[in-house]
Design goal:
By secondary structure, this protein is an all-beta fold. It contains no helices and eleven strands.
C-alpha cells in the first residue's frame, strides 16, 4: 500500500525558516509528480508548490522567492524549504503524489505554527 509521511513541522517565528520532508513508500516515487499543499484554520486546502518527476519546480505567487521545493528520488523523499515565513503561513502542510495513471496519494499532514 502506498503511503506518504510528512515531517518537520513545528513552531517557527515570523521571518524564520523550516524544512518539511515527505517520504514515500509502496510506490515508485520517482515516477510521481509531488506537490505541497496547506490548509489554514477555516480555510480551504491550497496548492503551494509542485515538483515534476524530473525535478522542475513551480510555485504559487505567494511563496515565490521564499519557498523551495526539491526531491531526492533515490531517497523517496521530497522537501519543502520555507524561509521568511509569514504569520499567514501557519497551516497543516500536506504532500501529494500523483501520476498519469490517476494514482493519487496524500500524506497525513504536518502542522506549522508561526508565532513569536
Amino acid at each position: 500500500e502506498a503511503q506518504l509521511v510528512e515531517s518537520g513541522g513545528g513552531l517557527v517565528q515570523p521571518g524564520g525558516s523550516l524544512r518539511l520532508s515527505c517520504v514515500g513508500s509502496g510506490l515508485v516515487f520517482g515516477r510521481y509528480v509531488v506537490s505541497w499543499h496547506r490548509q489554514g484554520p477555516g480555510q480551504e486546502r491550497e496548492l503551494v508548490a509542485t515538483i515534476s518527476s524530473g525535478g522542475d519546480p513551480t510555485y504559487v505567487d505567494s511563496v515565490k522567492g521564499r519557498f523551495t521545493v526539491s526531491r531526492v528520488n533515490a531517497k523517496n523523499t521530497a522537501y519543502l524549504e520555507m524561509s521568511s515565513v509569514k504569520p499567514n503561513g501557519a497551516a497543516v502542510y500536506y504532500c501529494r503524489a500523483r501520476n498519469g495513471l490517476n494514482n493519487n496519494y496524500w500524506g497525513q499532514g504536518t502542522q506549522v505554527t508561526v508565532s513569536s
